[in-house]
Amino acid sequence: MPYKEHFLYNDKIIIPIVQRNDHTEDRHLNISILEVADKLQIKIRDLTDYSFNYSDTVGLADFELIRCAQSLDINFSEFKANIIDMLHQYQKKEMYLKCQISDNKCTLVFYMKSKIKNMVYLTLDLQKTNETEIIAEIHAEKQEAQELIRKLEKQLGKTKKLVEEKDFEIQDIEKARKLMLEQFCKNLRYIESWSTSKLVQIQNQVLTKITALSKKINILQTNIEILKQENNLKAVSSDRLMKTMENLRVENMESNRLNEKLKKENGALNILRCSLERNVADMKKTVDELQSVNRNMERKQIELEKDLGKLSIIVTQKESKINELSKDVVQANNMLVQFNSCFDEKAQQLNELQKSIVSRDRIINEQKLQNNQVLIAFEEYKREFSAERFGALEKDLLMSRRKIDELEEEMRKINKINALLTHKIGQGCFGMNMK
After folding, report:
1. Contact at 8 Å (CB) between 371 and 397?
2. What is the pLDDT of residue 68?
3. Which UniProt keywords are present, listed alphabetically (predicted)?
4. At 85, is the pLDDT very low, low, confident or very high (cuts 50, 70, 90)?
5. Cβ contacts of 374 within 8 Å, gap of 6 or more
6. What is the pTM assigned to this prediction?
7. In angstroms, rounded to a whole number, what is the distance separating the alpha carbons of residues 162 and 382?
8. Residues of 210-221 as b/e, b for ≥16 C-beta within 10 angstroms?
9. Which of 25, 26, 167, 214 has its CA 20 to 30 A from that of 232?
10. Tens of pLDDT along 340-367?
């Protein structure tokens, strides 16, 4: 078989085989179509059964016989394209194909199914291939298989070399891994010792700073109590001042009322005096009566002058009292200014304490982050260490976390106390301002 010719079609498909006793079986058959010297060579064979091998060569004269026998409406060039197209349609299940075996002949039948009957498009009769050609095909396939085996042996040798190289690389990687593992163990031990020492140092530092803070807070509490007592005393004195001021205001209002009454009486006397002067001529007869009236008036005038003297004395006394009260108010203002300056100093101290507490919180959060990183490193390499050692490490880490949580709880309590103190101091200042 001329294998070096150009194949128009060469594929392995499943075709139903109809035997002479109408027995049908499906086989995987190889159909090849190639063009040799303006002729079409069609071959069908079973690669697993060398006895099933049929072929035929269709030339122009042979095609004319087929065309006349089967009433085909195509020429020879169209026949080549149509037979390949029908095979593709069969592979797509758009057409049917079967192979009928009888004696030394194989008939390929291309047909379509309808409700009434099968419509045959084309039938091709293939003759059994002679033995010499079959032997030549077997020999050619054997040579191809040997060539393929040689290529596979070469490829196998290359793959063996690659496998050996990869084995050497794996050994080198294993050595490097062991070295890295040893280095990691050393680093881990160093990290453990360093972290424990750091934790102890930080715990000691935090404890000392917390004790110092607690002492400062106690001092602040005592100072705040003293300030509260002073504030209460000042509030009592200011209440007394306010009461005296109110009493003076009431007395001043009463003196103003007396002045108004005296002015009214003086106005009435002036009116009477005018009426008396107008009626002097008419009152000559009653001079004695008028003299007595004048004497009475003089007495009243003397009494009024005495009352006016008394009023002037009272006014001078009120002015002296008002001056004393203004001096007391000035002293109270000075005391309030001193209290405000002292309160500002204490507030500044509280702010500094709050800043130090915030810095301690930051240090604790950074330590927590470092502990979390160490935990993550422990989790990543947990499989390479014993469970007992990891249990001890986890206990130590849990203890350190609990201590850190306790420290954080103490810091929260201190923050709450500071907030309450600032709130109470603010309320005390607000009460002073209101008073």
Report:
1. yes
2. 92
3. Coiled coil
4. very high
5. 191, 195, 397
6. 0.36
7. 35
8. beebeeebeebe
9. 214
10. 676 677 667 767 777 777 777 787 777 7
Supply the pLDDT for residue 51: 81
Q: List, in order, residues 6 or more apart from 357 with CB less than 8 Å away.
A: 213, 411, 414, 415, 418
384, 181 contact by CB (below 8 A): yes
**Residue 276, C-beta contacts closer than 8 angstroms, at least 6 positions apart:** 283, 290, 293
Token pair listed for 368: 């927590």
Secondary structure (H, E, C), 10-79: EEEEEEEEECCCCCEEEEEEEEEEEEECCEEEEEEEECCEEEEEEEEEECHHHHHHHHHHHCCCCCHHHH
Inter-residue contact 56 to 125 (CB < 8 Å):
yes
C-alpha closest to that of 30 among 7, 53, 8, 51: 53
**What's the rounded Cα separation, in Å, for the pair 72 and 62?**
13
Contact in structure between 378 and 390 (CB atoms under 8 Å): yes
> Exposed, middle or buried, 237 (CB in 10 Å: 0-12/13-18/19+)?
middle
**Which residue matches tokens 């930051």?**
362
From the list 341, 356, 244, 262, the residue with the least C-alpha distance to 305 is 262
Give SS3 for 9.
strand
Instruction: Inform me whether the pLDDT recorded for 242 exceeds 60.
Output: yes
Residue type, 100: Q
Whole-number Å distance between alpha carbons of 116 and 135: 45
Contact partners, residue 327, CB within 8 Å, separation at least 6: none
C-alpha distances in Å from residue 123, one per residue of 44, 71, 83, 242:
14, 11, 10, 132
> What is the rounded average pLDDT for all residues in the chain?
79
Looking at residues 190-196, what average pLDDT do you find?
85
Dist. CA 123–CA 110, nearest whole Å: 6
How many angstroms separate the CA atoms of 147 and 287, rounded?
177
105 within 8 A of 127, measured Cβ to Cβ: yes
| Residue 43 · residue 106 · CB < 8 Å | no
Q: For residue 212, give the amino acid letter.
A: A
Which pair of tokens denotes residue 195? 């972290």
